[in-house]
TrEMBL record:
Gene3D superfamilies: Aldehyde Dehydrogenase, Chain A, domain 1 (3.40.605.10), Aldehyde Dehydrogenase, Chain A, domain 2 (3.40.309.10). Belongs to the aldehyde dehydrogenase family. NCBIfam families: PRK13252.1. Keywords: Metal-binding, NAD, Oxidoreductase. The active site is at residue 253. InterPro entries: Ald_DH/histidinol_DH, Ald_DH_C, Ald_DH_CS_CYS, Ald_DH_CS_GLU, Ald_DH_N, Aldehyde_DH_dom. This is aldehyde dehydrogenase (NAD(+)). Residues 20-478 form the Aldehyde dehydrogenase domain. It holds the Pfam family Aldedh. Transmembrane segments: none annotated.
């Protein structure tokens, strides 16, 4: 059967390697549940070859003047922008996210990060520091490339995360072997070809394909200097543990169960808009999502009424239609997981279901092409308690839990009562109060009167079990995948 996209293989030595595999699997369009490409799993021998390719390229690439590396990466950013809609359609087919999202967020923000790090390095970001101890004694530092780094991507923002990892890595003079998620691998070799067209030398950016066993082999390889991983906490712990055994540098961007705090003086429309963005954007498949929505008891009824009005603006449908703003979940296993959580919330947690639930979205009755896709309804539980499973565990789907509170101090204490600390958000008219609350929240990122903005200039990283190190921002050059002092 002919599939919509060409098969994906490993990419190293500057070209596709069709002989790098002895087995394959299919990647699935989540909107239709139909296969769209054959993905050829990279053998261990081919992974070794990809790493050797990177090792050969490293001396010349790391010795290339930063301004020259910057010019090459700037060309790559320009190519990404020129091909935005083409790449966005690939992301929509692979992830199920609507084209209205992938065309305005995924490729755009990835190109921004690539340009940011190119400019940072080209503008002196690799310069060291000096300190005079005495008239005849000076200390100076240099910033040096690490070597060959491994990037392990996630399925929710495939090309964006690939660029978040490869941009600081390549800008700092390193080489990368990148493994995309087996659920969303289509972008990987297209990005490699964009880099090659921009002038990135063979061996500097390489791709291997496959599931967890490929990632484990790559992580444990003795020639890998650093591992940058994005994914769930349990997998991140395994990756970090394997890397630590080889004394490798790591960056771990893991999960969250973020608190979205509506303070008593908040503008209710702004608060509802923020809570919806924090729960339903990208079908809830965002690690920073604010799924624990803390609402003052006195505001709860008004908040819920406005939420029920505004939730009608969420429009599932043809993912290529410009009116659609809500897509399916990424895969059948993930769909099953989210539905199990929703059912648990109803049957075991005994939470009050305000809207949504496990039933299929109504639009499917008139859209036969999407009948088999992994579609779920935006779901809201209210009058929740902190002990409920749907409140404690990361669902990674469009499931909001509303938790009433009576005092701000109580709310802060409850918001911090989690082992995760990736993000948080505060909605209030009082910016002084906002800063006081933010200072007490145990989260790596906190938004005020907005949610989810993550520009290239802003470092992203979590506290507690939500991660180690940061990506993006100036610190991302050193910690993201970059340099040794």
């Amino acid at each position: 059967m002919s599939l919509p996209y060409a098969p994906r293989f490993a990419f190293y030595d500057g070209k596709l390697q069709s002989g790098s595999s002895t087995s394959s699997f299919q990647t699935i369009d989540p909107a239709t549940a139909k296969p769209i490409a054959n993905i050829h799993t990279t053998t261990h021998a081919a992974i070794d070859s990809a790493i050797v390719s990177a090792q050969k390229a490293f001396p010349a690439w790391s010795a290339t003047p930063p301004i020259e590396r910057a010019r090459i990466l700037q060309r790559a950013a320009a190519l990404l922008r020129a091909r935005n809609d083409e790449l966005a359609r690939i992301e929509t087919s692979d992830t199920g996210k609507p084209f209205t999202e992938t065309s305005t967020v995924d490729v755009v923000t990835g190109a921004d990060v690539l340009e940011f790090f190119a400019n940072l390095v080209g503008g002196g970001g690799m310069n060291g520091e000096t300190a005079q101890l005495r008239p005849d004694a000076w200390v100076y530092t240099t910033k040096n490339s690490l070597g060959v780094c491994a990037g392990i991507g996630a399925w929710n923002y495939p090309i964006q995360i690939a660029l978040w990892k490869s941009a600081p890595c390549l800008a700092a003079g390193n080489c990368m072997v990148y493994k995309p998620s087996e659920f969303t691998p289509l972008h990987s070799t297209v990005l490699a070809e964009v880099y090659a067209e921009a002038g990135v030398p063979p061996g500097v950016f390489n791709v291997v394909q496959g599931g967890g066993e490929v990632g484990a082999y790559l992580t444990q390889h003795p020639s890998i200097a650093k591992v940058s991983f994005t994914g769930q906490v349990a997998t991140g712990k395994k990756v970090a543990g394997a890397a630590a055994g080889g004394m490798k540098y790591v960056t771990m961007e893991l999960g969250g169960k973020s608190a979205c705090i509506i303070l008593p003086d908040a503008d209710i429309d702004q608060a509802v808009d923020g809570a919806m963005m924090a729960n339903f954007f990208s079908t809830g498949q965002v690690c920073t999502n604010g799924t624990r929505v803390f609402v003052p008891e006195a505001m709860k009824s008004a908040f819920e009424a406005r939420l029920l009005e505004k939730i009608n603006h969420i429009r599932p449908g043809d993912v290529h239609d410009p009116n659609t703003n809500f897509g399916p979940l990424v895969s059948k296993p993930h769909y099953d997981k989210v539905i199990q959580y929703i059912n648990h919330g109803i049957k075991e947690d005994k939470a009050t279901l305000l809207t949504g639930g496990p039933d299929r979205p109504s639009f499917l009755s008139s859209s036969p092409a999407y009948h088999s896709g992994y579609w779920v309804r935006p779901t809201v539980f209210t009058s929740c308690t902190d002990t409920m499973k749907i409140v404690r565990e990361e669902i990674f789907g469009p499931v909001m839990t509303i938790l009433p509170y009576t005092s701000v101090s109580e709310c802060i204490s409850r918001a911090n009562a989690t082992q995760l600390g990736l993000a948080a958000g505060v909605f209030t008219r009082d910016l002084s109060l906002a800063h006081k609350v933010v200072a007490q929240l145990e989260a790596g990122i906190t938004w005020v009167n907005t949610w989810g903005e993550s520009p290239a200039e802003m470092s992203v990283g979590g506290w507690k079990q939500s991660g180690v190190g940061v990506e993006n921002g100036k610190r991302g050059l050193r910690l993201g995948c970059g340099i040794r002092l």
